[in-house]
Write a structure and sequence with these properties.
The complex is a heterodimer of chains A (491) and B (349).
Chain A (H helix, E strand, L loop, with lengths): L2 H13 L4 E2 L2 H6 L13 E3 L4 H13 L4 E4 L16 E4 L6 E5 L4 E4 L5 H8 L4 E2 L12 H7 L6 H4 L6 E7 L5 E5 L10 H5 L8 E8 L1 E2 L3 E9 L2 H13 L6 E6 H11 L9 E9 L1 H16 L3 E6 L3 H12 L1 H4 L6 E4 L9 H14 L3 E7 L7 E5 L6 H18 L18 H4 L2 H14 L46
Parallel strand pairs in A: 2-4, 3-4
Antiparallel strand pairs in A: 1-2, 5-6, 6-10, 7-11, 8-9, 8-10, 12-14, 12-15, 13-14, 13-17, 16-18, 17-18
Helix pairs in contact in A: 1-3, 8-10, 9-11, 13-14
Chain B lengths: L1 E3 L4 H14 L4 E3 L15 E4 L6 E5 L4 E5 L4 H10 L2 E2 L10 H7 L6 H4 L6 E8 L4 E5 L11 H5 L7 E9 L1 E2 L3 E7 L4 H10 L5 E4 L4 E7 L1 H14 L2 E6 L13 E6 L5 H5 L5 E4 L4 E6 L3 H13 L6 E3 L12 H11 L15
Parallel strand pairs in B: 1-3, 2-3
Antiparallel strand pairs in B: 4-5, 5-9, 6-10, 7-8, 7-9, 11-13, 11-14, 12-13, 12-16, 15-17, 15-18, 16-17
Classes of the chains: A alpha+beta (491), B alpha+beta (349).
């Protein structure tokens, strides 16, 4: 009996036969996420409880299988792509809201819960869960925790980490630890903070205690259009310089506006070079003053028209345009490759110009929609993989784009994570010692090296005594399988 | 106590390498403002980082400041204010940035601006054995690699020396006001928290509640009216801020941290406290009397919280530490010779 078959039998006994999949179609389905990286799965399990999750980790340990956690599979870097004979632990059956406690401004949720479902459940409580990745309709809270997900409203409210008070984590030895606390401080090092954004490499998140934020009493949403990308970016800087920190500050270039408008019919101006979606929130009197400040900053920088959402429906429509951007680009070409680097705000125009130049030179279609207030760029390359040589050109251009961002003082990723796609770029931003201490952090949580291995750290990153096993890159990489873009694929 | 005072990062590295080689323990110190936080550690040498006091980079347009760990909070405050910004941690002027990051004190304004840890985006550290390591990024958001900076934040100098930090800063408020309601207690504080839209702080004492307001003058006026609708106002201080732990007059101060709904349970009968309503922090002033500390800690433990002493003797308390094995392995990786304030941290680390 192979180790996979032995593990399957034990998992079936522990979780129920229906909670374990081994058929070729399932293994193929769970061998990838929303990136262009494809791997191979050995087994797929669907735990329904913390105990089930513990059983998964223990059984995997017995049979020396890697454990790869997966939420909704909307990840964009291959972080939940299994390699080799891994056990994929899918959290989609653990999707309950455990409790909502407005008096403590917190909620406990299971990892498979969709982000937006939490928001919906909170309606009427006066509180909301702020992180709002564009994938929020289907991305899971557990996945959001794994990538430390962002979203448009993280400009004013901070990324996922600022909204996670505690996590119950199944560690590689099968023990369950509550990291963080329901209260504002916990005893010990901030292990919670290390787990958030660790892409499932430190343990499996079995439950998350998230912070609730009072709903802002008043919200205004504006759409500004510009005849040049430079004016649009200058407006972003001018708004920040005026001392206003909007709730969201999102920029879209002409290519993406046209794709979106054809798809969402939000009334975006398709002749503008760039549009800026600005949202301010707070107390009515302050919001009024901030709208004026935004308008002044925009007028000083050559804005075309300023359109303000008059009704909640109009606001929803403006946001639909932004948040469905990546569903819309399916009309441009069947495949895409998406970046997530962050640059200093003051370098936005310079980097954007560089990105356009690289793509023009290499005859690639690029569109941009991004969190301008955060400096978080999302250049999106659209292409057709069936055209010979295209994928290679895309990857070469991508390499240049990443280096351009890093040279501008930026970060490899703002909210999507490192996964498999970016791990070999890590030495661009970190020294060998930096990477070694990161390997130590990983090894401190997972001395076995079985939790989602080969993600985040490049080969060769080792922590002296812990020697995190980083296997070779032979079975890793971009696989030429067909992958048409699903409608509504997000960033 | 012997004092080592390196004047450069290389000297910090050399000092720590040397201490590790000789297995000679030491305490990392900055402004020595938050030294009381932590368990007693038997060291007879201190390594002061106060000479590393430069501002490395600050561009108001980026809303980020990169500073050396020994820079004084007061000096940083003045520099940021020149460009209309602030790092809203509210630590004393003499404290250092590195010391504040290492001890992660709470500000009354945590209600609005969140905990200090959320503002730290990049650190450069020197580990116990003298390695220089950096984590995070100098951008307002980043998820590249493991967040070593989160482990360093609040580590009480037991993992590494913090030689440089990048923090998120924000625009200074256009105007500020503190409205002091004439009824005190946790319930009165909660009524105000519910009645006021977006206060920066609601601090309850046994006989007063201070509500901190910041922002556009119009919104401050509007919220002042909201306060007057539910409470009698004793004092209005223009351009003031709600008081923090410094306003407590007692030889021993405990910083209790519990879920916000448990504040009344732990403070019942306490005569001297300042509680951050909606946050769950309570600073409790005690006489130098171990028995009352024991009683308070028992109540806090029942409420699922922790109660370290931050002024006077008493240490961190005996709250259980989750994943202690992970903690031990981290400590061994960052400080293999165990020279950085051994025993000061939770779990005997």
């Amino acid at each position: 009996m192979t180790k996979l078959e032995a593990a399957r039998r034990e998992l079936s006994a522990a979780l129920g036969a229906e909670a374990v999949l081994v058929d070729p179609l399932a293994l193929r389905l769970y061998a990838r996420d929303a990136s262009i990286v494809e791997g191979t799965a050995g087994l797929v399990a669907f735990p329904r409880s913390v105990d089930d999750m513990v059983a998964c980790v223990r059984i995997a340990a017995t049979h020396d299988l890697d454990v790869v956690p997966r939420g909704s599979g909307t990840g964009l870097t291959g972080a939940s792509t299994p390699l080799g004979d891994a056990l994929v632990v899918v959290t989609s059956k653990m999707d309950r809201i455990i409790e909502i406690r407005p008096e403590d401004r917190l909620a406990w949720v299971e990892p498979g819960l969709f982000n937006l479902d939490l928001g919906t459940a909170l309606r009427g409580t006066g509180f909301t869960y702020m992180p709002d990745p564009s994938s929020q309709q289907v991305s899971s809270i557990g996945g959001n925790v794994g990538t430390n997900a962002g979203g448009p409203h993280c400009l004013a409210y901070g990324v996922t980490s600022a909204h996670v008070l505690a996590v119950d984590v199944v560690l590689s030895d099968g023990s369950v630890a509550r990291l963080g606390a329901e209260g504002p401080e916990a005893a010990g090092y901030d292990l919670r903070g290390a787990v958030v954004g660790a892409e499932g490499t430190l343990g499996l998140v079995a439950a998350a205690c998230v912070r609730l934020t009072p709903e802002p009493p008043s919200i205004r949403t504006m759409l500004l259009d510009f005849a040049s990308v430079e004016d649009c970016a200058a407006t972003v800087s001018a708004i920040i310089a005026s001392g206003v920190v909007p709730a969201a500050l999102e920029m879209m270039d002409r290519g993406i506006v046209r794709a979106v408008e054809a798809f969402a019919h939000a009334g975006y101006p398709t002749d503008a070079a760039a549009v800026l979606l600005v949202e301010v929130d707070g107390i009515e009197a302050a919001v009024h003053a901030e709208v004026r400040a935004v308008e002044e900053a925009a007028r000083a920088n050559g804005v075309g028209t300023i359109r303000e959402a008059e009704t909640p429906d109009e606001r929803a429509l403006l946001w639909k345009g932004r948040k469905s951007a990546f569903g819309a680009i399916a009309q441009i070409a069947p495949h895409y490759h998406l970046h997530d680097c962050v640059v200093p705000r003051t370098k936005l125009v310079e980097v954007l110009t560089g990105v356009y130049e690289i793509c023009r030179r290499d005859d690639l279609t690029v569109t941009n929609v991004f969190h301008a207030g955060d400096g978080n760029l999302h250049p999106l390359l659209s292409f057709d993989r069936s055209v010979p040589g295209t994928l290679e050109r895309v990857l070469a251009a991508s390499d240049e784009i990443v280096r351009l961002c890093v040279d501008a003082g930026g970060s490899l990723t703002g909210e999507h994570g490192i996964g498999l796609e970016k791990r070999d770029f890590m030495p661009l931003v970190f020294t060998a010692d930096d990477l070694a201490i990161q390997a130590c952090v990983r090894g401190a949580f997972d001395p076995t090296g079985r939790m989602n291995p080969r993600k985040v750290l490049p080969d060769g990153a080792r922590c002296g005594d812990f020697a995190v096993a980083a296997a070779g890159a032979d079975d890793l990489g971009v696989v030429g399988a067909d992958a048409t873009i699903p409608e509504g694929t997000w960033i | 106590m012997d004092l080592i005072a390196p004047t450069s990062r290389e000297e910090v590295r050399a000092a720590l390498r040397d201490a590790s080689a000789r297995r000679a323990p030491l305490a990392l110190v900055g402004g020595r403002i938050h030294e009381a936080k932590g368990n007693p550690s038997e060291v007879d040498r201190a390594l002061s980082l106060t000479s590393l006091d430069r501002i490395v980079a600050f561009d108001p347009a980026e809303m980020l400041a990169v500073v050396e760990g020994g820079m004084r909070i007061g000096a940083l405050r003045e520099r940021l204010a020149d460009d209309g910004q602030e790092w809203p941690v509210d630590a004393p002027d003499e404290a250092t940035v590195g010391g504040v990051v290492a001890t992660a004190p709470s500000s009354p304004r945590r209600l609005r601006f969140g905990p200090l840890r959320d503002s730290v985006v990049e650190v450069e550290l020197v580990t116990g054995d003298g390695r220089r390591v950096r984590s995070g990024a100098r951008t307002v958001k980043s998820v590249q690699g493991y967040d070593v900076h989160r482990l360093a934040t609040g580590s009480l100098g037991t993992l590494a020396a913090i030689v440089q930090v990048a923090v998120k800063v924000r625009p200074l408020a256009r105007s500020r006001r503190v409205v002091v309601a004439s009824d005190g207690g946790i319930d009165a504080g909660r009524r105000l928290l519910d009645a006021v839209a977006l206060p920066t702080a609601v601090v309850a004492t046994p006989d007063r509640v201070e509500v901190g307001l910041e922002g556009w003058p119009e919104e401050i006026d509007e919220q002042t009216d909201e306060i007057r609708r539910v409470a009698d106002v004793a004092v209005v201080r223009e351009d003031g801020a709600a008081g923090g732990v410094e306003a407590i007059d007692a030889p021993v101060v405990v910083e209790a941290a519990v879920p916000p709904s448990k504040l009344d349970a732990i403070l019942d009968g306490e005569p001297n406290y300042r509680a951050l309503i909606g946050v769950g922090i309570a600073w409790v002033g005690l006489s130098d009397d171990g028995e009352r500390l024991t009683t308070l800690r028992r109540r806090v433990a029942e409420a699922g919280g922790i109660a370290p002493v931050i002024r006077g003797p008493g240490g961190l308390g005996d709250a259980p530490v989750a994943a202690l094995d992970v903690h031990r392995r981290l400590k061994a990786a960052f400080d293999p010779a165990n020279i950085l304030a051994p025993g000061r941290f939770w779990g005997g680390l």
